[in-house]
Amino acid sequence: MAEKFRILVVEDDPDDLALIKMALKDEPYEILVAHNGKEGVEKARAEKPNAIVLDIMMPEKDGFKACEELKSDPDCANIPVLMLTAVGQYFSSTQYAVGSGMRIEAEDYIEKPVDEKVLRNRLAHFLKRK
Amino acid sequence: MANSVSILVVDDERVVLNSCRAILSEQEYHVETASSGEEGLRLAERRAFDVALIDLKMPGMPGMDLLSKLAEVRPKTIRIVITGFATVETAIKAMKQGAFEYICKPFTPDELEAVVGKALENRDLREAAEQAQREKERFILTIYHQLKSPVGVIKGYVNNLLKGVITDETEKRNVLERCLKRSEALLQSLEDLLSLSQLKSRKIQPKRELVKLEDLVRCAAEGWNVRAQEKGIQLRLHVDVQLPPIVADREQIEHLFANLLDNALRYNKENGSVELKATVNRTDVRIDLSDTGIGIAEADIAKIFDEFYRCQNEQTRSMPGTGLGLSIVKEIVEAHGGRIEVRSEIGKGTTFTVWLPLRD
User: From the list B141, B153, B313, which residue is nearest A94 (CB)?
Assistant: First the structure.
């Protein structure tokens, strides 16, 4: 059963976005794109993707707020969210620490720059569960 | 009087309390007195004193007890111990337990002032050191984030090129151009960081040279014009004939104009224009630099001079920028005793106005 999964990528940096697309080039995914948190939440609600790759640092609504909204929306709450964090785990005092993200219940976190294998494996893992 | 230093003096001898109050009030310190350890503790609980002078030998609650209670209740209050020659050993014990200094009875006004002054200076230095440490940590974190982003991107692209993931020739070229753009932005970031750091530490002393603004601006415009032409952008200069030279740091003023002109070009529309007006009045030279660019949203205007602040919207998203250019401009302007303001309308353009004093 070769089902094409739909992945929504929410990322404002055009280079980071291009790299994510390259990483997922050979996967059986249809890639949807949003350029900021606001657009991301709207698209997620409209398109109901199978998974969401969500950057944290974005204009118009950052990843944390977007994730919070999606997880409190019963229609979207069960869509697995992978957050992309640019700041390492060492600096837990910052707003964008992985630690503080944990409270918002994203399914997983990947550090930027994104390791392609890690991204592919994590997505495959979440999509198999469904 | 908001910054008035407050001092608590605790001693069972009225004479000591009165003389301390007299001596310290001359320094415009706010002084409160207590004649017992219990009373002293009560006063300290009600108010966060900067300094507490505590007699070691008191009836009732011993001085040492008050010292340890104070350390718990008001850890930030600097504790100074008043002792007699017979009890110096105890005073030293008190210092080992966190008292800052001791003073021996009978003491002269000079001695009292000196020890209190020393305590306050020590506190100021300590706070400055802690503040500097916090700023350093914040700075390092920001740099880490600023630099990791472009390097990660370049690495990703190079990796994909090497692996042969990108087959299309146009896409290859595009990716290489992105690598170039991101590296250039990264190098510029580093230059700006260094500039800003140097400006901040040298802030007190910009060089004092006679700078002819008109010459300087024309010079800056020459190099800039080449790039501007590629975008079809014209620079119009209107300089007051009577523009006198100002006393300024030439290199810094050049940097100032370079940054403002750079922005005026970068955020401008194709075939737009940039206008530089320089006028003079009795006290200042005034420079208005206007562009027909994308403008700055009202929400961003308040933060536009903040370090690393970048407006984030559709147009700026793919433009490299360090967010330091305007911070540097502001530092330079202020180091020269000047002022800078910005006015803008989204979609129409922006005007930066700089005032530089004619004399300092």
Answer: B141
